[in-house]
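Reagents: none. Just compute today. Putative o-antigen polymerase.
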Amino acid sequence: MTLSGLLLFWSVATYGREPLNIVRWMILSLFGGLLFGGILGTLTLLIQKKDNLGIMNLGDKNSTAQFLSFSLILMVVCLFHRDKLRLPKAFFLLGFPLMIFFVLLCHSRAFLISLPTAIVSMFYLRGPKIAFFKALSTVGAVFIALLLVPFIRKEVETALAPGHDGSFISRYETWKGAILMWKTHPFLGIGPDNFQMKNIHEIYHLPPYASHGHNFFVNLLGEYGTLGVVSMFLWLVLWGFYAVGQKKRHLDPVYGKVLFVGVLLNLLMAGIAHPIWGGSGSLLLMLLMTLSLSPWNERTSNHEPLPAGGSESADIVLKNRNGTL
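Predicted 3D structure written out:
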């Protein structure tokens, strides 16, 4: 609620002003809330001797990791546009290590694979190649350094190991159960409410640890059926069309593509093993989708340089901006 209140406050406070100010304060408010929430969650983890980090209303460890991973993707986009957003270097020097630290405390192994893949892909699309190789080297160096930490090394070693421990392969039984749900209710699925039936595990041969919204297959195929799959495919196509296909309208032609690919890789790769949406994660996903279509990146922005060709061309552009032509 505090995080939502901050976002709402700064949106209202900057209403009618420069769009970049709205984006800047929303980003600072978001990460300010995550900073305090993460510190409080870490203290709670230490005092109560919990196994995983869960930041209050963000939900359990997987939902928290999803929200933090999307936030890191947003931070990478902010890094690409640091000068335009006028964000201080301290924001990134402090933000990146803390967000990564919080993600690791969640012990949500799927994001150890999806998040680095998404970030490296974003640097590759953004260019130049030297930046991509720097990002790849940094991710590799951080990964090697983290392997020196015992609990991180165990997380990595068991990420793909079979067993009922939250690894990718251990989800195979839930995938089979989701396909069985779809076969029995192909059009609409069994619905999220029906998933709470007492004998649901016996009917669809699900393992005991499988719960509501357990992963991509259960979330979409089992609960919402063919209609859910088609609906998700359509909004992904529409989002991709506007984020990637409208690059001629953007000052940064690859901006929408970078954000779209980063979010999509993180969403679908981690979704193989963990929930792909939840209340908080869906809100942040909608914010990222909005920012990928943001008008502050359009050529009609006041930040676009005036065209060459004399004062007459400049007057025409200024009249267009002021709505007098």
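Residues 2-164+246-293 form one domain.
Action item: order primers for follow-up constructs.
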